[in-house]
Amino acid sequence: MSLDSFKTRRTLTVGADTLDYFSLTALEQGGFPHVARLPFSLKILLENLLRREDNAFVHAADIKALATGAKGDTEISFMPARVLLQDFTGVPCIVDLAAMRDGIRQLGGDPEHVNPLQPVELVIDHSVQVDHFGGADSLGLNADLEYQRNRERYVFLRWGQNAFRNFRVVPPETGIVHQVNIEYLARVVCRDSSGGRLVAYPDTVFGTDSHTTMVNGLGVVGWGVGGIEAEAAMLGQPSSMLIPEVVGYRLTGRLPEGATATDLVLTITEALRKRGVVGKFVEFFGAGLKHLTIADRVTLGNMCPEYGATVAVFPIDEMTLEYLRFTGREESEVALVEAYAKAQGLFRIDGAADPEYAETLELDLSTVEPSIAGPRRPQDRVSLGRAKASFASALPDLKKGIKMPAASGSGGGAAVAEAVTTQLEHGSVVIAAITSCTNTSNPSVMVAAGLVAKRAVERGLTSKPWVKTSLAPGSKVVTDYLAKAGLQTYLDALGFQTVGYGCTTCIGNSGPLPDEVAAEVRERGLVVCSVLSGNRNFEGRIQQDVRANYLMSPPLVVAYALAGSLNVDLATEPLGTDREGRPVFLKDVWPTSREIQQTMLASVSADMFRAQYAKVFDGAERWRSLPVPTGDQFAWEPDSTYIRRPPFLENLSREPGKASDIHSARVLALLGDSITTDHISPAGSIKADSPAGKYLVAQGVAPKDFNSYGARRGNHEVMMRGTFANVRLKNALAPGTEGGWTTCLIDDAVMSIYDAADRYRDAGVPLIILAGKEYGSGSSRDWAAKGTMLLGVKAVIAESFERIHRSNLVNMGVLPLEFAAGETAASLGLTGREVFDITGVGETLTPRSTVTVQARAGTGPARAFQVRVRVDTPEELTAFRHGGILPYVARRLAAR
Q1: What single DSSP character describes residue 592?
Q2: Other CB atoms within 10 A of residue 741 CB
Q3: Euclidean distance between CA atoms 569 and 575, whole angstroms
Q4: DSSP H/E element including 666
Q5: 758 to 418, 607, 761, 765: CA distances (angstroms)
Q6: Judging by DSSP bridges, how do beta strands 529-532 and 468-471 pair with one another?
Q7: Is 228:808 a contact under the CB 8 Å cutoff?
Q8: How far apart are CA 746 and CA 743, in angstroms?
Q9: Distance between CA atoms of 574 and 588, rounded to whole angstroms?
Q10: What CA–CA distances, in Å, run from 827 to 479, 822, 831?
Q11: In whole angstroms, how far apart are CA 405 and each of 94, 408, 518, 519, 544?
Q12: Looking at the DSSP assignment, which residues form a beta bridge with residue 223?
């Protein structure tokens, strides 16, 4: 319990319970008046420090610094109340914990010391793929395939659920992690027993998915972290961070008729990405909040990683309380949230003084217009009226590098074959997916999609036959209210049958295109499009045959499925013709806000949430019938191709080795700007001729059983072979190629990045990466850092880093270095063929210091330049010197 140097411990009575809490008001009255004007999010961090003051990780000076508004390089410690995992990133976390139990036993420690110290919940939502679509049996068939492909992973998770304390698993076919989080898992205010007394404190969360920020819309401060950082938090290791700068975003007015929450979030994403908020907190305030539902707010929170902020938070208010009741929370929980938030000054009241922000932006909601974003980035917003022209202008660039390999796909039919041979063209929409937590959590846009479908079917319109349509709800509650409203029938008629409950198209689990469509696209070199109600549309992410991808609201997804092409201007041209041959325009099928609201009131109820979440951890019969291994250590199967003991803790010594400079390193890849974790981390399908595919074939796995990289994240042998293997990666060391290629400078031969790394490893040559701006942006994928480390990369020198990936590199023992302002690899004349020495990174290394890089080309003199060390805090430096966070935490636990 806290040392409570500032005497802030108070009691709060809620119903029959009396709870302790650490009062921000008491701190304010005790000589820190600035506390009253702190942003909501910083108040949450301040409470975290008050409650955890221990003179080890949290000192009285830290509390004083935050309470008085200190900025800049002031470091604080943060420990979330809970950790949230999805299965792609969660399985490696549990694999690492299992390996840590083995490593601690090797050091003579007790494996039982490896247990989550606070609640950890894992939602299995990333493993379902859209193989089957457009039929009533699509959901069942996809679920059958999911269990066939992922049986080993699921059996492992069932072991983990029994072996580890404080660990619960939400089984497959339930929903998307972030929607399950806001509808059920989020506490908003936690209550716990400590020293025989109840303690109340804010719900905060680390999630291994960058879109954990969706819960910010509920007033819960939390953000995405790498899997290794999440593992450390599970084991009681707090995260060190600099006091963040908070940008206030004042919202006024209300959304106009025809505009959706999706249009709002695309508008704000564009504005904040242009403004530059990477690493900052964004906090929404202003009179416009009273017109934004929690569903709208969580949509804005969800897209936070797309504009680069750490969080995008809303304060708790009456809307929060209404949502908690609406989603079936117990009245005692709601009462605690209200009483605690008001006692702490965390409850938003109309007319109250605004907090003091580092800077303030403003948006009048009435100016928002229907929009889409693409073809490659979420921040590239285009008004709906300009969509056709925007695609036309992007087409020449999208056509670059098109190759035409032999076709492969799944299913189709005569109607599709005839249609694609006559009508497919550049700009044809071949995937239309209502998918992703961003929008499926919002009843207003889901009901709007159903109403668009209803009117379209009544006019006799159908989806174009070359469009692969799908609906992947974020929870079963969505199915309930669409059915009650009578709208699912119309969505079914347009091919939007439910294909699964999980994150599908948005993470690349869109499945193959029908054979005839894939063949036509490849043989004619067509630039075809996907439209999805998701949050990510980076190149190469959605589907390997689709080069242009556009984010939009669910009703617009339905509209583009009807039109079948980005070459149709939905603002002025018809979607199709009705039974009488009359043109049908978007305005003819678009519902009014009143219609949407009336439908929601009649079809969505709290009873639906209570019923669906009553036994959420039990799962369906096929989950319950899986075998459950026993024992406190996992019995690794030597021939498993899904779950293997990782090498991160092999030959673990009690003390770390001495840090040293990097000598005679070679460049594995010379990369440009905006290299995302999609480019770095293995994702999507595994090709038979790739290093990972060849490995699986050698293990006796047939290509049809490869599954995806995401599903095999528990096997480091697969994942390291898929690192930097994205089909759209462009490496200047292998000019004229696209994909995971490089030139191995040992003999100047072009080969796969994995094979080159293997050659360098055998020769004892350390490796570095050279890159441009925003290196590592995108999802918080631990394998982007783990794979980099396993390939032998010792340092990455970039112009700038995305926050989570930078932290992940440090936590895997890879050194992130930044070029000096205004300098780039090109401006320094670097070709990537030089030999590099990096000095000053040994025992004298300090956080954010400057070190020297020398690059030698041939026999000429070395070129020296300075770079900034992006190990940002003393705690990060300690983990780096241990070789990463895993051996650091393992050594601490073994010493108990």
Answers
A1: P
A2: 22
A3: 9
A4: strand 662-670
A5: 47, 57, 5, 10
A6: unpaired
A7: yes
A8: 9
A9: 10
A10: 55, 8, 10
A11: 39, 9, 10, 9, 12
A12: 206
Whether 544 contacts 684, CB under 8 Å = yes
**Unique residue bearing structure tokens 């480091």:** 716
Q: Which residues are within 8 A (CB) of 198 and not within 5 positions of it... i.e. 6 or more apart?
A: 17, 18, 19, 20, 191, 192
Classify residue 525 as left (phi > 0), alpha (psi -120 to 50) or beta: left
8 A C-beta contact, residue 867 and residue 850: yes
Which of 711, 730, 721 shows the shortest CA–CA distance to 689?
721
Residue 120: CA count within 13 A, CB half-sphere: 29
Sign of the alpha-carbon dihedral angle for 577, 579, 582, 584: negative
Return the sign of the alpha-carbon dihedral for residues 425, 427, 428, 430: positive
Residues 6 or more apart in contact with residue 360 via CB below 8 angstroms: 247, 248, 249, 250
CB 590 within 8 A of CB 434: no
Query: Cα(459)–Cα(442) distance, rounded to whole angstroms?
Result: 26
Q: Tokens in use for 159?
A: 């072991």
Amino acid at 482: L
Interatomic CA distance for residues 585 and 399, integer angstroms: 30
Cα(first)–Cα(last) distance of the chain, in Å? 20
Token readout for 575 is 């979607």
Q: Are 609 and 616 in contact (CB under 8 A)?
A: no
Q: How far apart are CA 33 and CA 13, in angstroms?
A: 26
Buried b / exposed e along 40-77 (16+ C-beta atoms within 10 A)? bbbbbbbbbbbbbbeeebbbeebbbbbbeeeeeeebbb
**Residue type for 20, please?**
D
Q: Which amino acid belongs to residue 128?
A: V
Please report the sign of the dihedral spanned by the C-alpha atoms of residue 228, residue 232, residue 234, residue 235. Answer: positive
**Beta bridge mates, 314:** none
Helical (H) or strand (E) element with 668: strand 662-670
List phi, psi (to 5°) of 10. Answer: -135, 175
pLDDT along the chain (896 residues), means of 10: 94 96 97 97 98 94 94 86 93 93 89 91 93 94 92 94 95 95 97 89 94 96 89 87 94 96 95 92 96 95 92 97 96 98 96 94 97 94 97 94 55 56 90 89 94 98 97 95 97 97 86 93 95 88 92 97 98 95 97 96 95 93 92 91 92 87 97 92 88 96 89 94 93 94 96 98 98 86 92 98 87 96 96 96 92 92 95 88 90 83
Residue 864 to residues 814, 818, 845, 851, 855: CA-CA distances in angstroms?
A: 21, 14, 18, 10, 6
Tokens matching residue 605: 């109820």
Cis amide prior to 627 (ω within 30 degrees) = no
Q: What is the C-alpha to C-alpha distance for residues 717 and 693, in angstroms, rounded to an integer?
A: 11
Decide if 478 contacts 453 (C-beta within 8 A): no
- Tell me if 97 sits within 8 A of 114, measured CB to CB: yes
Cα(234)–Cα(153) distance, rounded to whole angstroms? 20
Q: How many whole angstroms separate alpha carbon 305 and alpha carbon 307? A: 5
Tokens of 723: 């690192």
| Token representation of residue 328 | 């079936």
Q: H/E element holding 550?
A: strand 548-551
pTM: 0.86
CB-based contact 174:476 (threshold 8 Å): yes
Place of tokens 């080969």: 751
User: Hey, is 253 helix, strand or coil?
Assistant: coil
The DSSP bridge partners found for residue 203 are none
CB 499 within 8 A of CB 462: no
For the record, the structure tokens of 4 come out as 């409570």
User: What are the residues whose beta carbons fall under 8 Å from the beta carbon of 121, sequence distance 6 or more?
Assistant: 82, 83, 84, 85, 167, 168, 169, 170, 185
Using CA atoms, how far apart are residues 316 and 338, in angstroms rounded to an integer? 8
**What is the CA angle 577-580-581, rounded to 5?**
35
531 neighbors 564 (Cβ within 8 angstroms) = no
Count Cα neighbours of 194 within 13 Å in the Cβ-side half-sphere. Answer: 14
